[in-house]
Amino acid sequence: MQRVLFHETIFGPIHSRRLGTSLGVNLSPNDGKICSFDCLYCEAGFNAQGRGTTGIPSKEDVAARLEEKLSQMKSDGRSLDTITFSGNGEPTLHPHFGEIIDVVTGLRDRYFPQAMISVLSNATAIANPSVAAALRKVDNNILKLDSALTPTIHLIDRPVNERFNADDTVARLSEFKGNCVIQTMMLRGEKDGAVIDNTTTAEVEALLKAYQAIQPRSVMLYTIDRPTPHRLLEKVLPDELERIAETFRRGGINVEVCH
User: Fold this and answer.
1) Which residue pairs from 150-155 have beta carbons closer than 8 angstroms and sit at least 24 positions apart in sequence?
2) Is the alpha carbon torsion for 61, 64, 70, 73 positive or negative?
3) Over the stretch 128-139, which tens digit does the pLDDT of each residue have?
4) Mean pLDDT, residues 29-49
5) Is the pLDDT of residue 253 over 70?
6) Residue-wise pLDDT tens digits, 139-178
7) Is the pLDDT of residue 2 over 70?
8) pTM value surpassing 0.85
9) What are phi and psi of 56, to 5 degrees?
10) Domain 145-259 CATH assignment equals 3.20.20.70
11) Which residues fall within 8 angstroms of residue 190, CB to CB, at 6 or more apart?
């Protein structure tokens, strides 16, 4: 089974097809995964691998490791486009997420003030006022919405909370008043006899309606780019991604297709 990707709290920098030169912040264990989704396509593998033994990093550990890395990059004359919260799970589940955002912002301002702070989140914790407040502070509040239909979300993203639903999620995303970016993974496949396909007319129409309600700054539309833990998934070809994007653009949505 595919295992965790990142064995450090601060990793990279790496080149992100969406964000440029990105220094990663992993608030999950270095040898395990903590996530409120169990997505079929997650590059970090399934939640069944467990939480590991190292535990989540403390606020102080994140600060020390990030400052060390930023200082070294500055001394080496390297560039940085973004500091990105991602890693082996859902970053907003960290109990001190808001405080860590403030610490990272201060270090960014000191070493690379031109760099952005980005958070890749599955949006499961945005009902928590402290999480929502922290996300409003960052430059790129990037929130997942792979479908606007609850059965499809449960098929693709497999939320741990069985009550998680599309309508509530869209309503909470709308509360950001456009201060967010939505990322949507387009894919097809099969799981236990169930067809997986969020590119159908019904899916695209539901997503467009959701985007129009949320009014995000932009939508990042992308597809599978690396091996996935569930093998029976198919990427959507670039031409089709562009056609879907055009449907959203005609509906007034700013869409970036990430190949």
Assistant:
1) 152/198, 152/203, 155/191, 155/194, 155/196
2) negative
3) 999 999 999 999
4) 94
5) yes
6) 999 999 999 999 999 999 999 999 999 999 999 999 999 9
7) no
8) yes
9) -80, 150
10) yes
11) 196, 232
Tokens of 42: 């997650």
CATH number of 1-142: 3.30.750.210
Q: What is the pLDDT of residue 174?
A: 98
Least confident of 19-23, 174-178, 240-244: 19-23
**CA-based torsion, 62, 3, 123, 19: positive or negative:** positive
Domain assignments of the chain as residue spans, ordered by start: 1-142, 145-259
Q: Whose CA is closest to 157, among 206, 230, 225, 87?
A: 230
β partners of residue 221: 184, 257
